[in-house]
């Protein structure tokens, strides 16, 4: 199975929040290099990667982008 990175995070908190959102929406996310922040303080230099199966990548990116975009009010 092929996987795709849908988010590169600076912190474990950012990665876990995004993973939780994807998991709740029925995706199959996992985090790579989460331990890379140990001993480095809060910033891992963007080395934490959130991945999903390639077939889910486009929809997962769209879902994550919807959380970043403010909603328009009429």
Strand content: 15-25%
| CA radius of gyration | 13 Å
The whole-number mean of residue pLDDT values reads 85
* CATH class label: Alpha Beta
Bulk shape: globular
The domain tally reads: 1
What is the makeup of the main sheet?
A: 3 strands, antiparallel
User: Could you state the order of secondary-structure elements as H and E?
Assistant: EHEEH
Helix content: 25-40%
Instruction: State the secondary-structure class.
Output: alpha+beta
- Total beta strands: 3
Give the helix tally.
Answer: 2
Low-confidence stretches: none
Distance between the termini: 43 Å
Side by side, the strands of the main sheet go: 1-3-2
Q: What do we call the CATH topology?
A: Alpha-Beta Plaits
| Named CATH architecture | 2-Layer Sandwich
How would you summarize the topology of this molecule?
Blueprint: E1 3-9, H1 12-24, E2 30-32, E3 48-53, H2 57-68
Antiparallel strand pairs: 1-3, 2-3
Describe this structure in words.
The protein has a 3-stranded antiparallel beta sheet. It has a single domain, classed as Alpha-Beta Plaits. The chain is 34% helix and 22% strand. It is an alpha+beta fold. It has helices at residues 12-24, 57-68; strands at residues 3-9, 30-32, 48-53. The chain has 2 helices and 3 strands; from the N terminus they run E-H-E-E-H.
Short summary of the structure?
With 74 residues, the chain is an alpha+beta fold. It has helices spanning 12-24, 57-68, and strands at residues 3-9, 30-32, 48-53.
